[in-house]
Design a protein that fits this description.
single chain, about 170 residues, 10 helices
């Protein structure tokens, strides 16, 4: 998906190849998506990743979603991150978000909630995404984010307190 999105719908033949029992067929389909790019494959890729595929396929999907450049994909990523169905792959989804470099700044409060509420590894990925934000969101989002941090700090363990105070510094 590194190229400009040329194709704006899902190719049925390619979709079938993605769910093939033959790993080589799946890898070729993933390569094709990588070359042509199409944000509409993201939910299918998330479902595939969530189904615990073969290691090679998982690595290809992870690489692919980490290279997405289409700004319109931000909402698709966020819907998946917030969906309990994708909780087993939330860490991978958030890692892909900071790797692909898309602007997730408007979702800062969501990532702060993840830092506060999720287990350490997932919280760390959310912290890394926040730490790598190129742009900060508008004042209202920053205000809401600071309130969340202030409310969470007293109950936070040492690691989460570190994450939250570092985020707070970034927001100053």
């Amino acid at each position: 998906m590194t190229s400009i999105m040329k194709q704006e719908n899902i190719n049925e033949k390619l979709r079938k190849a993605l769910i093939s029992e033959d790993i080589e067929v799946v890898k070729i389909a993933l390569e094709k998506i990588s070359e042509t790019g199409n944000r509409f494959y993201l939910p299918l890729l998330f479902d595939m990743l969530n189904s615990m595929p073969e290691h090679e396929v998982e690595a290809e999907i992870t690489k692919l979603i980490g290279s997405v450049k289409n700004r319109e994909s931000v909402n698709t990523f966020m819907r998946a991150i917030e969906d309990e169905k994708y909780k087993p792959i939330r860490k991978k989804l958030i890692a892909a978000c900071w790797q692909n470099g898309l602007d997730f700044s408007n979702f800062l409060p969501v990532f702060i909630d993840i830092v506060i509420e999720q287990e350490w590894e997932v919280a760390f990925e959310a912290f890394t995404l926040i730490d790598n934000l190129e742009y900060l969101p508008g004042e209202e989002i920053i205000r809401v984010s600071k309130l969340k941090i202030t409310a969470a700090l007293p109950a936070a363990n040492e690691q989460k307190r570190y994450f939250l105070t570092e985020i707070e510094k970034k927001l100053e």
